[in-house]
Each structure stands twice: as structure tokens, then as C-alpha cells.
Amino acid sequence: MIVFEHRDFDEHERIVFARDAATGLRAIIAVHSTRLGPAAGGCRMWPYASEEDALADVLRLSRGMTLKNAVAGLDLGGGKAVIIADPKTQKTTELLRAFGRAVDDLGGRYITAEDVGVDVSDMEIVRETTRWVAGLGRGLHASGDPSPVTARGVFEGLKLAVGQRLGLENLEGVKVAVQGLGHVGRNLCRLLHGAGAQLVVSDVDEARVRAVVEEHGASAVPVASIVTADVDVFAPCALGGVLDAEAIETLRATIVAGAANNQLATAEDANRLHRRGILYVPDFALNAGGIINVAREIAGIADPAWVDAKLQGMLANIDVILREAQERGVSPQAIAEEFARRRLAAAQ
Ligand code: NAI
């Protein structure tokens, strides 16, 4: 397997392949950058089709965390972990403990938390073998499930984009397609429905679709049709890579604003969206609510107002990013990356 010459390798500081035969653990931990502080980012459990897929995912996700933490003004670097396993059938207490030991071996260089396939109760088990874990449900300053805060940030940022692109002050009657109705997607639907938006939704899990249709009067569409739904805003809240050349060509929304990490299939896709006149709010700038929530716990801060203040800072940054992109006629992605690079360079 090629690592240093991998397409997604970006001067990552450390990449650890962790194997524990007794529990079946196969995990990769990527520390992209510790320039701003210990690398923090969630652990994803997913039945990757191959080790190559898992490596590509962790390389991209950890780099995304560096950008996200930098733009959100957190004193944290970027890292991420992936466990190659099906969370529905292969998640065991022993496997999570073995993962905790692998995190512990990094001595605090990487701090883990929840991501897709992993929840607060799993982090409680990971805590048994390492203290370098956050997003806990119990204990001093425990921050719990980060997804409601992520959803709040996405909701507010989406409103900013609607204000800029559609000139609307609220979401009354605005049509939003939400892809993925998990922890974040479902919370986002609740907020959007409360604000009067009309929802179009899809998920591979039909029970989740039914719940959101009943709770929020959403219209359900097949998984393959959500990208082409006739809506104002497309909110990807499932997995990454959804915005590729083909999807961008067929997208009918004029705004893309969602929680999923790594929405762009390639770097060029930001320019493709820009050329099509679609306002894309960079995922790493918009979905930082969860890591902001976790950062409070890591810093040992008790006051929940700290999270609100950081979230306001995140939204102020998004506002500046969108305005600057419009003024300079470039993609918001380019501006957001510049933002992150400036902060990283200053820290050097
Ligand atoms: P989750 O695992 O709770 O939900 C993901 C949902 O997407 C599931 O319901 C799943 O069935 C669905 N899904 C998977 N493939 C799909 C497809 N092809 N079409 C439609 N639905 C599909 O995950 P969570 O926590 O809600 O996260 C969603 C995204 O947001 C992920 O990309 C995650 O990395 C990102 N994110 C989450 C944060 C959080 O606080 N949970 C923070 C920042 C980013």
C-alpha cells in the first residue's frame, strides 16, 4: 500500500496502523497536524470495502480536521481515526478497548471522539483504556453527543447562505433537501422544520426516513434522487464525496450547505460548483459545532456559554468567507482554506 505518495497524503505527521488479532481490531489513526495543539477528531467505524478506502478516508478526514479546527479558532490540531468494521455487527467492548489502547500509545498527540458509527456510550468504553478521549457522557465537563451543536451551526450557517444567495431573511417556504438522517441530519430537519422550511429527505435506512416524514412533514425521495431534487438548498449529512463532477452537473439547488465531512470528491469540485453559480459553504467551516462542543471538554471549561461564543465566532467567519468569496469572485472553499493557512502560518 502506498502511503507517502498517496494522492491524499498531505505531510501528515503520523499514520498508525493498529491491529489487535484477539479482538479483530483493524484501525488507522492519522495525525495530520499538531501545530495548533493536540490533534483532535472523531473515530469513524465503517465497513470499508478495502484498506485503501479506509486509508484514503482517514487521510482526507484528518486534514479536514486541521482546517476545521484552525478556522473555528480552536487550539487543536487535526487528526482522525477509522476502524474497519461494521458498527451494526462487529462493534464489541473488547474491540473498543483495543482501539483505546492504540490511541493511548500516541500519548495525547491524538484525542478521539465520536463520528459515524460511534456514539457516546462507545466513547465511555474507550475511556477505560485511554484518557485521550472526549465527547463523553459522564464525568467532569463531559460534553456528550456533539451532533445537536453541529446541527445548530449548520442551520445558522445555512441561513446566512440563504440570506446572501436568495436575499431572504428567514427560511419560511425555502426548500431544503437533507441527505442522511442520522444524528446530525435528524436534528437539522427539526430546526429547519421549526423555521418553516419545506423538507425533502433521503436515507438508506427506511425507518429513519419514516420518522422524519412523520415528525416534520418531509417528502421522501429515493437515495439516488436526492441530489437532483428540485430544491433551493442541498444539505449533505451522510458520507463524503457526494459532490463529484456528475452530481454537480445535475444539482438543481443553488446552495449547498450541510454537515458531512469531505463533501467534495476532488479539490477541483469547488471550482466546478463556483462555475455553475452554486454557493457551496465549505463543510469544514460549517460543521465545526461538534468539535467546538468537544473542545470545551478537552480544555476543561465548565461554562456552556463558551460553546455559544465559539459558535458565534464560527458563524461570523462563515459570513466573512461568503462575502469575501463574492467580492473576489472565487469559491468560498478557496477563501476558507486561505483562512486556515493564515492561522497555521501564524502559529508556526
Ligand atoms: P450518522 O451515522 O448518525 O448518520 C449518517 C446517516 O447517513 C445515517 O442515517 C445513514 O443511514 C445515512 N446514509 C449513509 N449513506 C447514505 C446515502 N448514500 N444516502 C442517504 N443516507 C445515507 O452520522 P452523523 O453523526 O449524523 O454525521 C453525518 C455526517 O456529518 C458525517 O459525514 C460526519 O462525519 C459529519 N459530521 C458529524 C458531526 C457530528 O457532530 N456528529 C460533526 C461534524 C461532521
Descriptive notes:
There is one protein chain. With 348 residues, the protein is of the alpha/beta class. Helices cover 44% and strands 15% of the residues. The chain has helices at 51-71, 93-105, 120-126, 147-166, 183-194, 206-216, 245-250, 268-275, 283-286, 289-299, 305-328, 332-347, and strands at 14-20, 25-33, 39-40, 43-46, 77-84, 110-111, 175-179, 198-202, 219-220, 233-236, 255-256, 279-280. Helix 2 packs across helix 3 (120-126), helix 4 packs across helix 10 and helix 10 (289-299) packs across helix 11 (305-328). The longest helix is centred in the last third of the chain and has 24 residues, at 305-328. The chain is globular and about 55 Å long. It starts with 13 loop residues before the first strand and ends with a helix. Residues 115-117, 146-147, 150, 179-185, 202-205, 208, 223, 237-239, 259-261, 287, 290 line the site of 1,4-dihydronicotinamide adenine dinucleotide. The site of 1,4-dihydronicotinamide adenine dinucleotide (NAI) has 27 residues, from helix 4 and helix 5.
